[in-house]
Task: inverse folding
């Protein structure tokens, strides 16, 4: 067997394989011997039909089967010899198989790109100083308080005010035509929260229980609901009820109601601060790693394999579909077109694949691996987050062939931690705009 490898691009290879005539004849003879034992032809006992008759009746099928068998038997061997790892199913092209002649075929496939990467150790990267203020604690405490508040209908004869909760029935129209899915009854809206739409909520102020009104809203082009984005919608609204939130007093009794472990309001505040501190530290660590990998990526130019990008896109869209399905919806119901969604997600998918290839390259260069102890530790972390035994989680991963992808995920995180450990960290203060400001 002769093998030749041709570079079509940095991520695409063409492998040409030629098999000697002697091997071809051997495989054809084997095929006809097997066929003679299996086939039943009128006038001949089993296994006694002459080969010439078999060639006339089954010749084309035999040649196709032998060609397919030769490809299956030699391709993996050729891949091992050339030391390449195909990323996708190869596209095969082969010559006509003929007895007494060499048989040749080619396989075009994508591979991981070869690229150089340097200067990833000791990079300067900004990291925010973790800070949780009393104001942050009070804000979180107020959210807990609101979650334990009770809504009651107002008894006074008045219109809706800011921060009231309006129970409404509505229907949306565009050019006097009803918009499918843009309607609801017994819908609770906190006026002024801007969870629905700022203009819509503002138009409710002053309306009384039982009032009917028409509200015109011009939705932004980037509105979160695609079916409303960029549209001018007229809403017909009826106020079914007006409610206000009654909040519990912030005292030691409130703290005990929140959790049996809390004996006082101060204890609850300390726990809130600890939780916020942990959340903030995790956020800062994620953003630090994001800045670092972005900095490394800027200096690396890689041609990305289409198969990896498409796989990442497929996974992203499937996650969106599953999330919608869990909430009882679909892409169609929320007005999302899958083709447009693929286009919108493509830049992020390409960025993700580039980062994956870079981290993979660094791990190989610096001999970073995931050993059995680290794999077990990974299952322990999952166990703590979902409350399931690590052994059961591991068996699930093994049964679904997920161990390999889990190792890749762990290795990426280990490589990021390695880069952070070897980076030059510059402490930064967080400013109001959300951008860090260097500590003097």
Result:
């Amino acid at each position: 067997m002769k093998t030749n490898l041709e570079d079509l691009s940095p991520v695409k290879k063409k492998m040409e394989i030629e098999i000697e005539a002697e091997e071809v004849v051997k495989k054809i003879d084997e095929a006809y011997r097997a066929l003679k034992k299996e086939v039943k032809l009128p006038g001949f006992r089993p296994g006694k039909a002459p080969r010439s008759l078999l060639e006339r009746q089954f010749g084309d099928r035999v040649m196709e089967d032998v060609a397919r068998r030769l490809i299956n038997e030699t391709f993996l061997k050729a891949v091992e010899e050339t030391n390449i790892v195909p990323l996708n199913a190869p596209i095969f092209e082969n010559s006509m198989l003929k007895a007494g002649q060499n048989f040749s075929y080619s396989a075009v496939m994508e591979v991981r790109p070869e690229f150089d990467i340097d200067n990833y150790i000791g990079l300067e990267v900004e990291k925010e100083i973790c800070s949780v203020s009393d104001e942050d604690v009070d804000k979180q405490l107020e959210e807990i308080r609101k979650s334990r508040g009770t809504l009651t209908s107002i008894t006074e004869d008045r219109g809706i005010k800011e921060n009231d909760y309006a129970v409404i029935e509505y229907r949306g129209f565009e050019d006097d035509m009803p918009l499918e899915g843009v309607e609801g009854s017994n819908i609770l809206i906190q006026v002024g929260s801007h969870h629905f739409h700022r203009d819509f909520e503002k138009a409710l102020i002053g309306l009384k229980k039982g009032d009917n009104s028409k509200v015109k809203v011009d939705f932004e082009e980037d509105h979160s609901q695609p079916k409303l984005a960029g549209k001018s919608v007229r809403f017909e609204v009826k106020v079914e009820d007006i409610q206000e939130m009654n909040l519990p007093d912030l005292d030691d009794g409130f703290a005990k109601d929140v959790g049996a472990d809390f004996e006082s309001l101060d204890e609850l505040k300390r726990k809130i601060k600890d939780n916020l501190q942990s959340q903030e530290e995790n956020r800062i660590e994620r953003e630090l790693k994001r800045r670092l990998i972005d900095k490394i990526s800027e200096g690396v130019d890689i041609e990305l394999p289409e198969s990896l990008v498409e796989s990442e896109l497929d996974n992203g869209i499937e996650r969106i579909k599953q999330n919608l399905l869990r909430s009882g919806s679909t892409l169609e119901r929320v007005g999302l077109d899958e083709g447009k969604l693929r286009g919108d997600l493509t830049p992020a998918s390409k960025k993700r694949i580039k980062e994956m290839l870079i981290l993979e390259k660094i791990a190989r260069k610096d001999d970073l691996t995931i050993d059995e102890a680290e794999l077990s530790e990974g299952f322990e972390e999952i166990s703590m987050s979902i409350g399931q035994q690590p052994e059961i989680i591991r068996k699930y991963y093994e049964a679904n062939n997920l161990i390999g992808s889990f190792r890749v995920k762990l290795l990426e995180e280990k490589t990021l931690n390695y880069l952070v450990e070897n980076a030059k960290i510059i402490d930064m203060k967080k400013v109001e705009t959300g951008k860090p400001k260097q500590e003097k």
Remarks:
- The first helix runs from residue 21 to 38.
- The CA atoms of residues 107 and 307 lie 16 Å apart.
- The chain is about 45% helix and 20% strand.
- The chain has a mean pLDDT of 91.
